[in-house]
Amino acid sequence: MDTAPPPPTSLVSFPDVERAEWLNKVLAQAWPFFGQYMEKLLVENIAPSIRASNTHLQTFTFTKVDMGEKPLRVLGVRAHPGAHKKQILLDLNISYVGDVQIDVEVKKFYCKAGVKGMQLHGMLRIILEPLLGDVPIVGALTMFFIRRPILDINWTGMTNLLDIPGLSSMSDTMIMDAISSYLVLPNRLLVPLVPDLHEAAQLRCPLPRGVVRVHLRGARDLRSKDRFMGGLVEGKSDPYAVLRVGTQVVTSRVIDDNLNPTWDEVYEFIVHEVPGQEMEVELFDKDPDQDDLLGRMKLDFGEVLKARVLDKWFPLQEGGQGRLHLRLEWLSLMSDASKLDQVLERNRTIVAKPDPPSAAILVVYLDRAEDLPMKKPGKEPNPMVQVSVQDVTRESKVVYNTSAPVWEDAFRFFLHDPVNQDVDIQVKDDPRQSSLGSLSLPLARLLNSPELTLDQPFQLQHSGPGSRLYMKLVLRWLPLEEVKSGRLHVRLENLAPSPSAALLEQVLHTNSLLQPARGEELSAALLSVFVDRAADLLLRKGSKPSATFASLAVRDVSVKTKTCTPSAEPVWDEGFSFLIKRPHVESLELQVKEEGGQPLGALSLPLPQLLASEGLALDGWFPLAGGGPGSQILLRAQLGPPAPGPPTRGPGSGGHCPSAAPRSHPEPAEGPLGRLQLTLWYYGEERKLVAIVHACRKLRAVSKELPDPYVSLVLLPDRSRSTKRKTSVQKKTLNPDFNERFEWDVSLEEASRRKLEANVKSTVSFMSREKEVLGKIHLDLAQVDLSEGGTHWYELRDERSSP
Q1: Model pLDDT, residue 8
Q2: Cis peptide before 356 (omega within 30 of 0)
Q3: In 24, 278, 340, 375, which residue has its Cα 20 to 30 A from 501's Cα atom?
Q4: How far does Cα 566 stand from its chain's mean position?
Q5: Residues 254, 262 contacting (CB under 8 angstroms)
């Protein structure tokens, strides 16, 4: 009798992410009223601003505003503790695929255009602050996207609109970029819930949380993308790096013809929100036509804040191979003027390219102006402000038809030598760019001000007698908090159990349910070991000492580092990975030896000690048994989710297990081509889309011989190597069992926009490598509740059927 493998029975457990179906029900009921609000906002507020912005748009009107029947959906909610007790942070993973219709008309040019359909996917952060001791309990809501959301607008009549004089230099891409950037940090939308909120200005433009200085060291073992002679000869790549933090983007120089590039460049990023704000690094191969992706990695700045200094090799994801070496330093904002000399002195010792390291940041809060001059009698100006420090200039928005504009904007600058730098301000009349006044302020004035802050009206020069600019300037030093690395002997006993160890228990439980097809024991964890260096080794005396290396072993799998020249303090700087089946009983055995085999010390690290440590990791100096007095080794060992396949050299990563097994659903009626069982869910902890291919049943035999089936997966719309996955081949069966896990490194909002195609194929001829498709399924992931996860049987369809 045909039976499927035992289905998982428990629910997916995401400790920090909650489903929000109750909120979706509220949104669905309130959506018509939200549409009424948007219509009023567009007609009464937005339309007059557009008409005032351009003389060619004086007849601009909204002729139709319909937000449609499809409400915005919240896929998951995650709560964080705030930076202080009067603050609550909520992250909402939102997805909007709406049937919105907005029509506009510019009567002067007989132009009609609009929007018909819109998609918006992203992580929206909501800050509840300040918390009050009276109703409504919360004083205001602050909303923004930490990362740029995915925005797709279906324009109608855009060509006609862009033919209007004054708009011809724009494009629909530029318009969407402007909309997206308006929603992303450091921009914020403040919604006061109580009148006369004193903290409104501070909430609208708060001080940054800190600065992260990123040392882009280099990369190793990158993939070669260059091919010659029709692909027969493999060349080398020309790599460069792109670093992104929200709207802040920098690009490194290109290293020609090198798979192990060294950049040694330093960049600095202002951080507004931790946890949540991330840095993404992408490596590309520079080509004359289109640059190839070599891999990418992401890092939440919360990890840097916790470690203060993070210096490690990061594995490259998304089809990439190799590692990226970064040193990240958290720089707190300090108002103590006594730190000035210390910061400047330390920065003189840092060799940084392409710019010298910053000693401070300046934040300019531009509030408003009053009594600006009118260049023409009876005609109010359209004021905007340019704020400059050295060769960096920021511009405010334009406020139309007023001599008393209100901007409520903020600008941030890195300062290398604040003692000798100035801030220059120009108030101009847009679009003529004629000057309405100026101001030059030496930053040394802030050094003698309380809290390094100036908050006052400033008299504008070359302006009217009563023309004033209301600003607040804040200076903050950037000292590096020294981390006492020393030679810390980590004690392995008396470590308190960590809640994160429960994840391994759930993985072990899941593995017991999966029942591997070939009788193998499934891996429960991936052990990553980074061997840095040793100290105070006791080398042989009387003869020339030999070179040294370290060997590592778990069960019957062993690896060793490179061999270093004879030294009592060898540096290896290498990483290794081991698949762990039973973390509760296994151990890591490490030996340091001379090249001839003479032992110099050993370390036995029981993996239960890692299970009992915070973050399932130990990092520091460990004493070497059997070595000389004080001999020790510096390493980091960490347990993480498992990766299928053999152990890999370098800090590899791979497939991740769920926190627990997803919910199983009953089998459907059998189709003519058979059925396929899949589990799909989004693993929020690692920001990965995960799939388990369980089994196929009742496949159709297309010839007299039984097929050799396997399943290929592709995450559409891309059909590249980075989006494709494939199971092993099962021989001569119509009912194959696979139970193999796969993952894609994508955000939840991006996964919700993708489609997953699964093809069941058979390799029927070894010589021709002909592959025969036995059936396929096509899943729109926007229709799958990935935050909950689930196991389903899917009816296979004919290859020629449309998606």
Answers
A1: 37
A2: no
A3: 278
A4: 42
A5: no
pTM, full prediction: 0.57
- Listed in order, strand segments (DSSP E) in 430-538 are 434-442, 453-459, 468-477, 525-535
Distance between CA atoms of 404 and 380, rounded to whole angstroms?
10
Q: How many CB atoms lie within 10 A of CB 290?
A: 7
Question: Across-strand partners of 712?
Answer: 726, 759
Q: CB count, 10 Å around CB of 749?
A: 20
User: In one letter, which amino acid is 551?
Assistant: S
Query: For residue 366, what pLDDT is reported?
Result: 92
Q: Map residue 200 onto helix, strand or coil.
A: helix
> In angstroms, rounded to a whole number, what is the distance separating the alpha carbons of residues 681 and 790?
7
**HEC per residue, 343-396:** HHHHHHCCCCCECCCCCEEEEEEEEEEECCCCCECCECCCEEEEEEECCEEEEC
DSSP 644: S
Buried b (16+ CB within 10 A) or exposed e, 683-706: bbeebbbbbbbbbbbebeeeeeee
CATH topology of domain 360-477: Immunoglobulin-like (2.60.40)
Which residue type occupies 3? Answer: T
- pLDDT of 525 above 80: no
Cα angle: 87, vertex 89, 91; to 5 degrees: 170
* 743 token code pair: 């993952």
- The token duo for 763 is 């390799």
| ∠ CA 177-182-185, rounded to 5° | 110
pLDDT exceeds cutoff 70 at 169: no
**pLDDT score of 667:** 43
CB 105 within 8 A of CB 111: yes
CATH 3.30.470.30 holds for 675-795: no
- 627 phi/psi in degrees, rounded to 5: -100, -170
The answer to whether the CB of 32 falls within 8 A of the CB of 71 is no
Q: Is the pLDDT of residue 483 over 50?
A: no
| Mean pLDDT to the nearest integer, 488-495 | 31
Q: Are 744 and 116 in contact (CB under 8 A)?
A: no
CATH code for the part of the protein at 525-640: 2.60.40.150
Count how many residues are written for the chain. Answer: 803
Residue 796 DSSP one-character state = -
Contact at 8 Å (CB) between 345 and 398?
no
Give the span between the Cα atoms of 253 and 602, in whole angstroms: 43
Return the SS3 of 490. coil
- Cα 696 to the chain's mean position, in Å? 36
d(CA 568, CA 622): 16
What is the Cα–Cα distance from 57 to 78, expressed in whole angstroms?
Answer: 43
- Give yes or no for residue 214 having a pLDDT over 90: yes
Q: Residue 559: phi, psi to the nearest 5?
A: -140, 170
Neighbours of 379 (CB within 10 A): 10
CA proximity to 120, closest of 143, 96, 98: 96
pLDDT at 508: 55
Q: What is the SS3 assignment for 645?
A: coil
Q: Under CATH, domain 210-332 is a member of which superfamily?
A: C2 domain (2.60.40.150)
Which residues, including other chains, have CB under 8 Å from residue 231's CB and lie 6 or more apart? none
- Are 300 and 278 in contact by the 8 Å Cβ rule? The answer is yes
Report the pLDDT value the prediction gives residue 542, as an integer from 0 to 100.
54
Q: What is the dihedral of CA 144, 150, 154, 157, to 10 degrees?
A: 70
**Backbone phi, psi, residue 524, to 5°:** -100, -20
Predicted confidence band at 168 (pLDDT cuts at 50, 70, 90)?
A: low
Q: Minimal CA–CA distance to 711: which of 696, 727, 694?
A: 727
Q: φ, ψ for residue 727 (rounded to 5)?
A: -80, 175
Q: Which two tokens stand for residue 117?
A: 């359909």
CB 593 within 8 A of CB 564: no
Question: Do 360 and 418 contact (CB within 8 A), yes or no?
Answer: yes
| Cα 444 to Cα 372: distance, rounded to the nearest angstrom | 28
8 Å CB contact between 212 and 268: yes
